[in-house]
What we know:
With 301 residues, the chain is an alpha/beta fold. The protein has a single domain (3-294), classed as Rossmann fold (3-Layer(aba) Sandwich), CATH 3.40.50.880. Helix content is 31%, strand content 24%. Strands 1, 2, 3, 4, 5, 6, 7, 10, 12 and 13 form a 10-stranded mixed β-sheet that branches. 40% of the residues are buried. GO terms for molecular function: homoserine O-acetyltransferase activity; homoserine O-succinyltransferase activity. Substrate binds at residues 163, 192, 249. The active site is at residues 142, 235, 237. Belongs to the MetA family.
Amino acid sequence: xxxxxxxxxxxxxxxxxxxxxxxxxxxxxxxxxxxxxxxxxxxxxxxxxxxxxxxxxxxxxxxxxxxxxxxxxxxxxxxxxxxxxxxxxxxxxxxxxxxxxxxxxxxxxxxxxxxxxxxxxxxxxxxxxxxxxxxxxxxxxxxxxxxxxxxxxxxxxxxxxxxxxxxxxxxxxxxxxxxxxxxxxxxxxxxxxxxxxxxxxxxxxxxxxxxxxxxxxxxxxxxxxxxxxxxxxxxxxxxxxxxxxxxxxxxxxxxxxxxxxxxxxxxxxxxxxxxxxxxxxxxxxxxxxxxxxxxxxxxxx
Length: 301
């Protein structure tokens, strides 16, 4: 079923070439069904790449999905044209009177900072508090997951000795949970981060459930038991070449970074990496939309 996106959004042409089912506003409003209304707070520097990645995964649903993007008001993004934000993005002020079926908070390149030192932290905490009252279920990605664990559950993060980057195998420990329905007992996920949420604090928290385990990367999926908050610690939305671009970016900056683990074929960075997590990504987003959003959200707020 289709996802409703603006006709001129740059991601649209990419998704159309992939035969993703897209629909324009005019046609969407003539269908006698209520779409799922999803809000995305995009904190990633390359906003257009993240838009494409998330819209691709949201498209794999039997439901019509309508998406609003917002950016921070307290911090002006530097890596995206102002005209793009003006044309395709709203602010929290524009949407805080609304209710949404689902909400996505992306990662952000600020994980080595203390939460309170992030320029938009106060705004983000206001948005996260708002989500408790105005959103059925929120999906938090990477740093967004760490921010949610800290703000909602008082769980801190710690610096890793070395950045974790690459593909890591996770094993399901809660295989019957509906969020991971259809996902293999062992699955591969991209990670790219310098910090970890405190594992024991997560495991001991009475309101949280860890769905998988990895000796190297820790848990990937953490969910609140009321299903209002989903925290994913990696970047399952990434394209096949995203880790390669990050690796090259860090090398160009003169940083001492290791090659992403189990990522490049034959461990040779001249070889083109393959996407080995696509099916899990589609399943995870489809399950979230179906079981945690559609099945729970009221037809009328």
